[in-house]
Amino acid sequence: MMGLLPAALAVALLIDRLLGEPPACLHPVVAMGRYLHRLGPVLTRCAPAWAFTGGALAWLAGAAAVAALAWWVQRALVLLFDAWAAALLLGLALKPLLAWRMLAGEVRAVEDALAQSLDAGRARLSHLVSRDVAQLDEHAVRESAIESLAENLCDSVVAPLFWFALAGLPGAALYRFANTADAMWGYRGLRGGHDWTWAGKWAARADDVLSWLPARLTALTLGAGWAMRWHVLACEAARTPSPNGGWTMGAMALRLGVTLGKPGVYRLHATARAPGAADTARALHVAGQGVLLAAAGCMAMQFALALGGLHA
After folding, report:
1. Which end of the chain is more exposed for a tag (fewer CB within 10 A), N or C?
2. pLDDT by residue (tens digit) across 144-180?
3. Confidence class of residue 310 from pLDDT cuts 50, 70 and 90?
4. Residue 188: what pLDDT?
C-alpha cells in the first residue's frame, strides 16, 4: 500500500486534466445529490426538532453508506489486482471526487462571457454561484467568479485530496458527501420554497468541521505562508460569515492584490483595487499552482503515514 495511494492520486489528477468529468449516470457525486434531493424537502416540512434529528440521521446514513461502499471498492482493488493496476483503478475511482478542470473551466467561461456583455457574464456566473446575480455589475461578477474559484479550490480539490491522503478512498468519498450535503441543505432560512434552518444545520456544521484544516492548507497553497503574514489573513478571513471560506478567499485577495466581496455582506482587502480582466487569468494560475502544491503535500503525507505504519 506504500506507493499505491500516491500513485492513485497522481492518476486521478491526470484523468481530470485529460478527460474531465464522467457522464452523470456514472458520477458518484450526482448519485449523492439524488439521495439528498429526495430527502431534503421532506425534512423541511417537519417541526424544528424533528427536522434537525431527521437531517442528522439522514446525513449519517448517507455518509455511512458512501464510506462503506468506498472502503469495499478500495479493498477489492487491492486484493484482486497487482499494485500498478490497483493504483490505476483506484485513481479512476478517486477522479469523480475532485473537479479541478471543471472548476477552472467554469471560472474561465465567466470571464469569456463578460467580454461579450454584462448580461452574458451574469448568466454564466449563475451556473457557478448560488447568490442572486441580477444586480451585479462587471466588477462584482468578476469578484464572485474569483471568490468561487478560491473557495471551491478547497471544496473540490484540496479537501478531497487531503482526506484521501489521510483515509484513502473512504475519506475522500465521505468528504464529498459532506460537502454536497452542505451545498444542497446547508442554508439559513428559505431557499427553493423550503426552510432549511433546522433540516440543514447538521450538514452545514459537519462540512465546517471536515473543511476546517483543508481550508487553511488551501490558503497556504495560495501563497499565504510566504506572501503575507498569517495574522493579516486571519483578520481578513474573520470578515466573512463562513469559518472556512474566508481563509481561501482572503488568501486569493491578498495574493492578487485586489479586493473581493459580497455586496452588503463582507469586503476583503478593502483598500485594494477592483479586479480586472487579467486578474481572472492570474487567479487561475495561482490556483493551478495551489493544486500542484496540494498534490505534492498529500503525496508526502501518504508516504509519511505509510512509513510510520511500517515502523510501528
Report:
1. C
2. 999 999 999 999 999 999 999 999 999 999 999 999 9
3. low
4. 84
Contact assessment for residue 127 and residue 106, using Cβ atoms and an 8 Å cutoff: yes
Distance from C-alpha of 107 to C-alpha of 124, rounded to nearest angstrom: 9
Residue with cell 433546522: 198
Whole-model pTM: value is: 0.95
Q: Which residues, other chains included, contact 65 with Cβ-Cβ below 8 Å and sequence gap of 6+?
A: none
Alpha-carbon torsion (127, 18, 183, 233), positive or negative: negative
| Rounded-to-integer distance, Cα 147 and Cα 71, Å | 34
Rounded distance, CA 106 to CA 99, Å?
Answer: 11
Which cell numbers hold the place of 34? Answer: 439524488
Is the pLDDT at 86 greater than 90? The verdict is yes
Q: Which residues contact 186 (CB under 8 A, 6 or more apart)?
A: 196, 200, 203, 204, 207
Where are the domains positioned within the chain?
A: 4-311
Reported as a single tens digit per residue, the pLDDT across 188-229 is 888 878 889 999 999 999 999 999 999 999 999 998 555 557
Q: Is the sign of the CA dihedral 257, 258, 259, 262 positive or negative? A: negative
Tell me the C-alpha distance between 148 and 246, whole Å.
11
Residue of 90, 124, 86 lying closest to 14 (CA atoms): 90
Query: 237 and 247 in contact (C-beta within 8 Å)?
Result: yes
Cell numbers of 78, please?
487491492
